[in-house]
Amino acid sequence: MASEINSKNVVVLGTGGTIAGTAATAADHTGYTAAQLGVQQLLGAVPGLQDALQGHTLVCEQVAQLDSKDMDHATWQALAVRCAHWLAQPDVRGIVITHGTDTLEETTWFLQTVLAPAKPVVLTCAMRPATALVPDGPQNLLDALTVVRDPLARGVLAVCAGSIHGAREVRKVHPYRLDAFSSGEAGPLGWVEQGQVRWAGRRAPGESAHPNATRALAGAVANWPWVAVLHSHAGADARQVQSLVSAGVKGIVLAGTGNGTVHKALLAALLEAQAKGVTVRLITRCAQGQIVGQPAALQAAPAGLNPYKARISLMLDLLD
Question: What does the pLDDT look like over 88-114, one tens digit per residue?
């Protein structure tokens, strides 16, 4: 792929994941090793790529090479910095990021929160390794390149199995099937059909960059505050909260049952943690919907976030 800048540049950033994974046999869809192929190799495996680009030029960069289950804050920061660099170039139309599926929803929300880009940043992935008999990565990558070039695309998006999801809503809902992502009750923002984007009747709401975004990108990752995620459940034990507080946790996101209800033993420990300066946010552990009304004892997390995205938002809130 050409690397010179022109008026129709699309940047492709590689981070590894299943889309770059390989297995010993084509029949093995689970025993593969993730993050084995570079982003140039992935693009080279996309049939009809040049025709689909319609004159756009690709600029490729390997930012990381890891299994997304092992995603870390340092990689997030490096990825966001590279995105910011390319988005600032007037000749860049947008960015496509190849990523693993396990933490794609978290990376999507982090990038949206710290960048709030007007240009499109499209994350894509695969549920089968590149060596599968019928890999899904090439089509997902082709779809992502279609979306990033669409004039209505903006902000951070996720594209998988022909569906386009917004950063706030997207979540992985299945461990194996190719169509592994959902936007829950909100539904997808659109679909890619035969090389064309069909948008739904809504757009993702504009998300402003977090006030501490600059600190997150410029400061040492070691200074990012420790925020943990806990779940309320039958037989919940207060000792998990007490242990976290003793170890120096700065924030806790609690996924409560139902409409944000919390086991009484856990609630008592969380209130004690709050009194000691730990910030607590409450969210429902239900797969759909959000807390209705304001809980009396604990502050609700921002609407529409799952526990892991709420962790990101709280971590940025506490960054100083």
Answer: 999 999 999 999 999 999 999 999 999
Give me the architecture of the 9-199 domain, per CATH.
Answer: 3-Layer(aba) Sandwich (3.40)
Closest to 39 in 3D by CA, of 18, 60, 57 = 60
Residue range 225-317, CATH number? 3.40.50.40
Residue 201's pLDDT is 78
Q: 15, 18, 108, 284: which one is catalytic? A: 18
* Comma-separated ranges of CATH 3.40.50.40 domains in the chain: 225-317
CB atoms within 10 A of CB 214: 12
Name the packing angle between helices 307-317 and 104-115 (round to 10°): 30
* 233: region left, alpha or beta (phi > 0 left; psi from -120 to 50 alpha): beta
pTM for this predicted structure: 0.94
Enumerate residue ranges in the chain where pLDDT < 70: 1-7, 202-205, 295
Strands 57-66 and 163-166: unpaired
Residue 4 pLDDT: 44
Q: Is 18 a catalytic residue?
A: yes
